[in-house]
Design a protein that fits this description.
Length: 475
């Protein structure tokens, strides 16, 4: 619990709310509790929020907005990478941006902290330091303290700590990322009277992921969508359509902004670094290598990845594989590797910061996800000239030009994925053809400048919300 949430809890005589590092995993472990949660917005809360007026006027030029980005932490995830890419790219254009996290930047939560620090945008933690002006500003908003103490426990302590930061140093626009943060920061921004709010959704709606789903997501997202100064982003057309259908919103409610690759930071590693990595994993000089870079969670289907690679290994005896990533399926994957006696050819690398080196050392990159937004790994691998094989999950179909820059197959087509992987491993000319075409494709469609400009276009739209309010109705 941060300092602002602790103060609010003390006013109500409530015990401190424990800070859970991964609240979605905590919720998954206690899903029985969800049955007792009423999936609705408490009575009177929506009416209260509609009475809150913007706390200040904002500049008419999006390039002059003071923008606060909010995310849980800076773990090695796709959304976290894209937040950092955008913030760094927009900062180069002179925008004033800050990054607020809900957890301290240590261990996994510090994965991208150095990237922001080097750009001169140090992240800070909600509620880490108490500013006594918070009490005055909160009491100047009649009814707000009482409302905070009526919030479902799902919102505590994060919404209160975010609210504290917004009251102390009000931004012109809050841009939140990922479902939990969208709800917490979205509500805090409404209570603080932030003039403009942008919520970035990724992939498909959280009901597809048991460890993410929460019964309060839908009603609160629908409430947020009813405010004309709240805008939504998704990073793929399939994802946007899925969220819109889930929330009973018109598809136009979601602006699609595909991921962007920062070509200044995703660079070809030096040959010595690549050779050092191959030596590290004891890879024979003539051995082909398949690489996976993904979270070891169910939607990424790591066991499908294993099965495809296992089949390929049975036909190419010197084929090796590595996976960079961590997650709840790691134990199951390790058991399968041991069961088939592949420990000397199939290595789990854990969390890596040098994924460019891993991909540059690989003969091919394989992704077997069931659900995807726009996978950073496919974009970055192609930019580095590494051939890719992937399922057509979500935005992956847009991220690869099938037959020209990589190979795509339907989710569940293990035979197709296996044969495609073998074709790349065994056909040098085919690999080189894909490798030569891929960087140009990525530069043309997935550059950082394009992503920054499209996001700024959403900010421009946010400055004139009532011109687009008609798209916020139900379908």
């Amino acid at each position: 619990m941060g300092t602002y949430a602790a103060w609010v809890a003390a006013q109500a005589g409530a015990p401190p709310v424990p800070l859970v590092k991964r609240p979605w995993l905590h919720g998954f472990a206690r899903r029985w509790h969800y049955d007792s949660i009423e999936p609705s917005v408490p009575a009177g809360m929506a009416a209260f929020l509609r009475r809150v007026r913007p706390n200040h006027s904002s500049p008419s030029d999006p390039g002059k907005l003071r923008v606060l980005h909010c995310i849980g932490g800076l773990i090695p995830g796709g959304a976290e990478r894209q937040l950092c890419n955008f913030v760094v790219g927009a900062h180069r254009r002179g925008l004033e941006l800050r990054v607020l996290t809900l957890r301290e930047s240590v261990d996994d939560d510090a994965h991208y902290a150095d990237l922001l620090q080097r750009a001169g945008i140090p992240p800070f933690v909600a509620g880490a330091n108490f500013n006594t002006d918070f009490v005055r500003k909160l009491r100047a908003r009649p009814g707000t303290l009482e409302l905070l103490n009526r919030l479902p426990v799902f919102f505590l302590p994060y919404t209160v700590d975010i609210l504290g930061e917004l009251l102390i140093d009000p931004p012109d626009l809050v841009h939140a990322w990922l479902d939990h943060n969208n709800i917490w920061a979205g509500l805090a921004a409404l209570l603080a009277g932030v003039p403009h709010i942008v919520l970035s959704t990724r992939n498909v709606n959280p009901n597809h992921f048991p460890y993410l789903a929460h019964p309060l997501f839908k009603p609160w997202y629908q409430l947020l969508a009813s405010f004309p100064h709240v805008q939504f982003i998704n990073n793929s057309h399939p994802g946007a359509e899925d969220y819109a259908a889930w929330l009973d919103l018109k598809p136009e409610c979601f602006r699609v902004v595909h991921n962007g690759v920062d070509f200044d930071t995703v660079v070809h590693p030096k040959p010595d670094a690549v050779q050092a990595f191959r030596d590290e994993i004891r890879l024979p000089s003539d051995a082909p290598l398949v690489a996976g870079v993904f979270r070891l969670s169910e939607e990424k289907q790591p066991m499908v990845f294993f099965e495809v690679v296992r089949r390929a290994m049975s036909r190419v005896r010197n084929l090796h594989a590595v996976v960079a990533g961590v997650g709840p399926c790691e134990g199951q994957l390790r058991e399968a590797i041991a069961q088939y006696g592949l420990a000397d050819r199939f290595r789990l690398l854990g969390r890596r910061k040098d994924v460019e080196v891993v991909m540059a050392a690989a003969t091919a990159v394989l992704l077997t996800s069931r659900q995807e937004g726009t996978p950073n790994v496919l974009l970055e691998a192609q930019w580095l000239g590494c051939p890719v094989v992937s399922t057509k999950a979500g935005g992956a179909a847009d991220a690869v030009s099938h037959g020209r820059t990589g190979l795509l197959f339907e989710v569940g087509d293990l035979d197709g994925l296996t044969e495609a992987l073998l074709s790349l491993v065994l056909d040098r000319n085919g690999r080189e053809r894909l490798s030569q075409a891929a960087p140009g494709f990525i530069a043309e469609r997935f550059g950082l400048d394009r992503m920054v400009e499209e996001t700024l276009a959403v900010y421009r739209q946010a400055l004139h919300p009532y011109s687009t309010a008609d798209v916020k109705g139900v379908r």
